[in-house]
Design a protein that fits this description.
- An eight-stranded mixed sheet has the order 1-14-9-2-3-4-15-23, sandwiched between helices.
- Helices cover about 30% and strands about 15% of the residues.
- The protein is of the alpha/beta class.
- The protein contains twelve helices and 23 strands.
- The radius of gyration is 37 Å and the shape is globular.
- The relative contact order is 0.10.
Length: about 600
């Protein structure tokens, strides 16, 4: 009997006629392929159990297991040797083919794994490059908007431009080396609101010189807690970082803000170069330079007409204030710039250009500081979502405001009626352009019913003493009596608290029930729905503001008086013809 072949030991078991079944015999490895080939011209091969297959008919073996020479030894067509040569040729070609297939598969696998590893390492590199900070400085208490019928929620991101001089580059670009170690200010503040269905987007700026209530903020850098104060909004950055700016916005607007992103002078220059700049326009020649009345100046120097600005010139455009008339004019110019950047990226198909996106991403992660929960994927997703929003559904405006009674020449305060209506639109995820997206409006979800009027304890506060006017005497008592006449038997007066607009506050923790109770009070007195607000009060509180100095019912308001878009600088994304006026002293 012939000896067993051991060439197949340790290899996977084979399936007979595997090739006929459509299986890839190369999966068995090179040795298995050899064994397969030798089966045609040798005594046999060992299977998975090591058993030797019998020799084919007409063949014999010597004790070594080799085939004996038979008739036709010369290798002619009828000889065994000739048949062996032909089979041997096929075996060699099969071995070569299987080796090529195997090495092709291995090479492809290495390439795929290598690419994936490189992609992962690059992703980690980008993530590790992002500078991060706490989302909140401890004062964030707004609630997220409930999901729509499709389970989607709106996205709110606070965009902050810092005037920090904490680096050589920023001092070179912004001047002020003597204030290098001072607190930075948030000179640019914009809220980007992307609708839940991602069909429209809004950007609202608050001028840097706006007086607001700044909540208590924890400053982790200086390891101190700053008490609440009434101050100019750009000072919030120095009281607890970007998280304090976010908390201040939430307190003012009642809008939950998901993330913040902050950039300094050098970052603006770098990002502007990466995205290719923006198209802007001035109606007259402009030279934003220092004057006897106004120090500083951005250094922007352009002739009348259209220009593409990028790099340092883009920073000059975004910082120009006096030549555009005021901080309000600067906000309008910033909106023009942002719309152009988005429009250009769309026109250039940059959102689908992998190489371009990687270049922008590399620059952005170095230039930006972001809230701690943001990562590269979320930033990429944001870009992809903006890509699909039509330009005519992107609207940018500046918060409605009035002169600040404490300093009317230098500062402003929110125009409460209009500003509150604006914040309500964003909280309710309603588009600022008033357009529908072709889908019927979803029916409002039914919340809990208000408690009975006689069970509700309501504190009424006299807030009529604002704007230099003396408070209307006995005003809280008059409204308490009006409430009692309508069944609110537990209404009572509280301490005075000046307010420009009337509102009904309910405790944040009371949720939907508190809101329903507050709405029942507002309805009884004729107050608009926008006057109902979640607050840090301990119980239901009605503030009778300067807009309601007399009468038992809230006076009917002119709808235009609370229209947030009336007399407000609004720039639509599709408007390519927007052009800035230049204040006369800065023309050349």
């Amino acid at each position: 009997m012939g000896k067993n072949s051991v060439r197949g030991e340790g290899t996977p078991g084979r399936v007979e006629h595997a090739g006929e079944l459509g299986w890839d015999e190369s999966l068995y490895g090179d040795d298995a392929s050899e064994a397969s080939g030798t089966a045609a011209g040798s005594s046999g091969h060992s299977g998975s159990d090591g058993a030797t297959e019998p020799a084919r008919s007409g063949e014999s073996k010597d004790d070594s297991g080799a085939s004996k020479d038979g008739p036709g030894k010369g290798g002619g067509p009828g000889s065994a040797a000739g048949t062996g040569h032909r089979r041997g040729g096929r075996r060699k070609r099969g071995k070569r083919k299987h080796r090529i297939l195997r090495w092709t598969a291995i090479t492809l696998a290495v390439l795929i794994l290598g690419t994936a590893s490189a992609g992962y390492l690059y992703y980690q590199h980008l993530n590790n490059s992002i500078r991060k900070g706490d989302r909140s400085a401890g004062g964030s208490d707004a609630k997220k908007t409930a999901p729509n019928a499709d389970g989607q929620t709106p996205l709110n991101i606070l965009l902050i431009g810092s005037d920090s001089r904490a680096s050589d580059d920023n001092v070179k670009l912004g001047g002020g080396k003597d204030i290098r170690d001072g607190d930075a200010h948030a000179d640019v503040q914009m809220l980007l609101h992307v609708s839940a269905d991602r069909k429209n987007a809004s950007v609202v700026s608050i001028p840097r010189d706006t007086r607001v209530d700044v909540p208590e903020c924890k400053d982790t850098v200086k390891n101190k807690v700053n008490p609440p104060t009434n101050a100019i909004i750009n000072e919030a950055l120095g009281r607890g970082g970007a998280g304090c700016v976010l908390d201040t916005w939430e307190k003012l607007t009642g809008i939950y803000i998901d993330h913040w992103m902050m950039v300094d002078f050098a970052g603006v220059v770098a990002i502007s170069d990466a995205v290719g700049g923006a198209d802007v326009c001035v109606k007259q020649n402009i030279d934003d330079h220092p004057t006897k009345l106004q120090k500083g100046g951005s250094g922007l120097h352009l002739t009348a007409g259209n220009h593409t600005v990028k790099g340092e010139q883009a920073l000059q455009w975004l910082r120009t204030r006096h030549a555009f008339g005021s901080d309000i004019g600067r906000s309008e110019a910033q909106h023009m710039y942002m719309n152009s950047v988005i429009r250009n990226l769309k026109d250039q198909n940059a959102f689908t250009d992998t190489g371009r996106l990687m270049g922008i991403a590399e620059t952005a992660v170095k230039a930006l500081q972001v809230s701690s929960e943001l990562n590269v994927k979320k930033l990429f997703d944001l870009g992809m979502e903006l890509k699909d929003i039509p330009m005519d559904r992107i609207n940018m405006l500046t918060m409605p405001r009035l002169p600040d009674p404490k300093d009317p020449d230098a500062h402003v305060v929110p125009d409460k009626a209009k500003a509150d209506a604006l914040w309500a639109l964003l909280r309710d995820d309603k588009p600022l352009d008033g357009k529908s997206d072709g889908k019927p409006a979803a029916a409002p979800s039914k919340g809990p019913a208000a408690a009975s009027a006689d069970s509700l304890a309501v504190t009424v506060v006299n807030g009529t003493g604002t704007g230099g006017r003396v408070a209307a005497k006995g005003r809280a008592t008059e409204v308490v009596n009006a409430l009692k006449a309508k069944g609110f038997k537990k209404a009572d007066t509280g301490s005075s608290n000046p307010a420009s607009a009337s509102e009904v506050d309910y405790p944040q923790a009371s949720g939907a029930q508190g809101k329903a109770d507050a709405e029942s009070i507002a309805t009884a007195l004729g107050l608009p729905a926008s006057a109902v607000k979640a607050s840090d009060v301990k119980s239901l509180t009605l503030v009778v503001g300067a807009d309601w100095r007399s009468g038992d019912s809230y006076p009917k308001q002119d709808p235009k008086a609370s229209d947030p878009l009336k007399d407000t600088e609004t720039v639509n994304g599709a408007d390519k013809g927007a052009c800035m006026d230049v204040y006369a002293p800065y023309r050349f």
